[in-house]
Design goal:
- By secondary structure, the chain is mainly beta.
- It has one domain.
- It contains one helix and eleven strands; from the N terminus they run H-E-E-E-E-E-E-E-E-E-E-E.
- Strands 2, 3, 4, 5, 7, 8, 9, 10 and 11 form a nine-stranded antiparallel sheet that branches. It has a two-stranded parallel sheet with strand order 1-6.
- Strand 4 and strand 5 form a beta hairpin.
- About 3% of the residues have low confidence.
Length: 155
């Protein structure tokens, strides 16, 4: 009987631990973003809340005086979502190359905008990163276009 109780306990413990999710992202509404986030790596959720792969938005960002449309890449199944798997990817090609914005660093905040440094990477037609083209670009986004700010949790 004691062995049966131990087996049941272990099964219950395993079942409850198996269902736990993983995430290293904290979500902040625009009104909750303050100077405490300055200097941190962030992602933006534009226009509509993108959750569980739904309501993926596009935004136009100008790079080298050329506007390009980007789509939110949200690898989020509702249980597991990791900061490093979020990004923006260009729909439009630049000289046959895809652009990926892997993250932003929040530089400053005004009443109407976020000033950031974008981490920009270029990929060839085989989806290989062109390392010598990777760079950082200063940019700003209007707060009215952003629904949430995603920040990597400190774990």
């Amino acid at each position: 009987m004691k062995t049966l109780k131990i087996i049941i306990f272990l099964l219950l413990f395993w079942t409850s631990s198996y269902g736990q999710d993983g995430s290293d992202i904290r979500y902040f509404k625009i009104i909750g973003v303050d100077s405490f986030l300055i200097g941190q790596d962030i992602h933006f959720d534009f226009f509509n809340r993108s959750f569980r792969g739904q309501a993926i938005d596009t935004i136009t960002i100008t790079i080298d005086n050329r506007p390009a449309r980007f789509i939110e890449v949200r690898k989020d199944n509702g249980y597991n979502n990791w900061f490093s798997q979020q990004s923006l990817q260009s729909i439009d090609k630049f000289d046959g190359q895809t652009i990926k914005i892997s993250k932003f660093k929040l530089d400053s905040i005004t009443t109407t905008s976020f000033q950031v440094t974008m981490y920009v990477e270029y990929y060839d037609h085989n989806n290989n990163m062109i390392v010598d083209k990777a760079r950082q670009i200063e940019y700003w986004f209007d707060k009215k276009d952003i629904i949430e700010v995603l920040v990597k949790s400190k774990q």
